[in-house]
Amino acid sequence: MSKIESPEPFYSMSRRAGDMLFLSGFGPVKDGEVIGANIEEQTIFTMDAMKDVLESEGATWDHAMRVNVFLLNMQDRDGFNATYMDYFKNAAHAYASSYRCG
């Protein structure tokens, strides 16, 4: 389990299964408040939090095999992608996006 403190008592930020490391859901939220005025700032906050957990487990973004992304607004896609790709300059991986409809 992650060495990073969990926001909830029964919530693990990460979990290992053999050589595999799984991260839990992350978002731009701290102390119940959304962090960041736009999608770029929210993406940086979220990706940095995930990076901290990866590093605490001895991993980097280069180890990522797949990242699931959920955006509330499809119009945020371009801003998200531009910021997100800054974290994957040398890594090719599977990336799945979902958008809220309605």
Report on the architecture of this protein.
The chain is of the alpha+beta class and 102 residues long. It has one domain: RutC-like (60s Ribosomal Protein L30, Chain: A), CATH 3.30.1330. It contains two helices and six strands. It has helices at 39-56, 77-84, and strands spanning 14-17, 20-23, 29-30, 33-34, 66-71, 94-99. It has a two-stranded antiparallel ribbon with strand order 1-2. The chain has a two-stranded antiparallel sheet with strand order 3-4. It is globular, with a radius of gyration of 14 Å. The model has no long low-confidence stretch (mean pLDDT 84).
CATH class placement: Alpha Beta
**Shape, per Cα inertia axes:** globular
Tell me about the biggest sheet? 2 strands, antiparallel
Unreliable parts: none
What is the CA-atom radius of gyration, in angstroms?
14 Å
- Please count the beta strands (DSSP E, at least 2 residues each): 6
SS-derived structural category: alpha+beta
Question: Which strand-content bin applies to the residues?
Answer: 15-25%
Count, helices? 2
What's the overall average pLDDT, rounded?
A: 84
Secondary structure topology:
Layout lengths: L13 E4 L2 E4 L5 E2 L2 E2 L4 H18 L9 E6 L5 H8 L9 E6 L3
Parallel strand pairs: 5-6
Antiparallel strand pairs: 1-2, 3-4
Helix pairs in contact: 1-2
Q: What's the short story on this structure?
A:
With about 100 residues, the chain is α+β, with helices and mostly antiparallel strands.
Keywords:
single chain, 102 residues, alpha+beta, 60s Ribosomal Protein L30, Chain: A, two-stranded antiparallel sheet, two-stranded antiparallel ribbon, 6 strands
